Amino acid sequence: MKKTNVCVVGSGIGQCHTECYEKLNNLPIAICDIDIPKGKAHQEKYGVKKFYKNFVDMLKDPEIEAVDICTPNYLHVPMMIDALKAGKHVVCEKPMSVNGTEAAKVIDVQKEAKKTVLMAFCYRFRDDIMWLKKQVDTGVIGNVIYSKASLFRQHGIPGWGSWFTQKEFAGGGTLADCGVHIIDVTHWLTGLKKVKTVSGYVNDCWGKQKLCTSTWGCPDYENGKFDVDDLVAGQLRYEDGTIMAFENSWAAQTDDTFDIKVLGDKGGFIWDLSKENTIKLFTMDGDTHLYSSTSIKCPHGHYNELKHFLECVDKGEQCSTTIEDGVEMMRIIDAIYKSAETGHEEAVIY
């Protein structure tokens, strides 16, 4: 596979991406970050050749073929559009944007640019999740009739007062940060069926009190603010009548958990990140299949997703996680927030 000259934009989760590219023998050619000390430290840590403070200047570099966007959520869409118009391939971290209307602006730009784009839904690329997807797709559990996804962090509010906790810049709180993971991967595992309506509930009691914060991000307790959710729950109702329930919190007063349960008419499974055997798959004939965590080479999925991106760029193909997937997830999130506001079930606007 030919090397692709990548610029990683952002030095938060971007450092994880750079580490993965290094392991893939495709060390980025440049780092771009408006925070010069942080960006320079990122560059020096991995021995990256170039550094840019200005995103527009970086796009003018003919040596750069692809841009990996790991910036605050409100910058994702304008940066994707500018990068595609500059003839670059694009990776975009989740969530795609701050709302569905904004996210949809990228669709026509990408079609005209004809460049490879990866929406970075990393949990789809975990080794155990990919194995599980094959079992579901081959009919091992039959038709999916119900699913439930849950992710709780005890002390997980990132960067209190920073862009993470301001709706204008993040689009939402725990739903936009973590909930998008559990909803997307469960939605994908169960067949990406069309969502008809959603119902949602949100709360913000812990964040408003500056409780349950984490070490992630750059907090600003004096001048920052918190106007997003730190707890969300609800359900997606599919057109075929089945439902997915979900619950997620940055700040739950309970153990850290991340699990998915799916019931089919011929079997079911439990995926639980806290267990040694992350998967228990059950069938009607009484068999129980286990997937051991010792078999997982890629626990967070970033390595596999970026390998997939580089392979698609090399072959001139589109990635399996598409812009349309990113837009749909934003439409679903929009509807969840609307439902929480109105107190009624709300339609997803496609």
Briefly summarize what is shown.
The chain has 12 helices and 15 strands. By secondary structure, the chain is of the alpha/beta class.
Notes on the protein architecture:
With 350 residues, the chain is α/β, with parallel strands linked by helices. The protein has two domains: 6-115, Rossmann fold, CATH 3.40.50.720; 125-300 and 330-347, Dihydrodipicolinate Reductase, domain 2, CATH 3.30.360.10. The chain contains twelve helices and 15 strands. It has helices spanning 14-23, 36-46, 55-59, 76-85, 100-103, 105-113, 127-137, 167-170, 174-189, 205-208, 302-315, 323-342, and strands spanning 6-9, 30-32, 50-52, 66-69, 89-93, 117-120, 144-152, 195-203, 231-238, 243-249, 257-264, 267-272, 277-283, 288-292, 346-347. The strands form two sheets. Strands 14-13-12-11-7-10-9-8-15 form a nine-stranded mixed beta sheet. Strands 3-2-1-4-5-6 form a six-stranded parallel beta sheet, with helices on both faces. Helix 4 links the parallel strand 4 and strand 5. Helix 1 (14-23) packs across helix 11 (302-315) and helix 4 runs parallel beside helix 6. It is globular, with a radius of gyration of 20 Å. It starts with 5 loop residues before the first strand and ends with a strand. The relative contact order is 0.17.
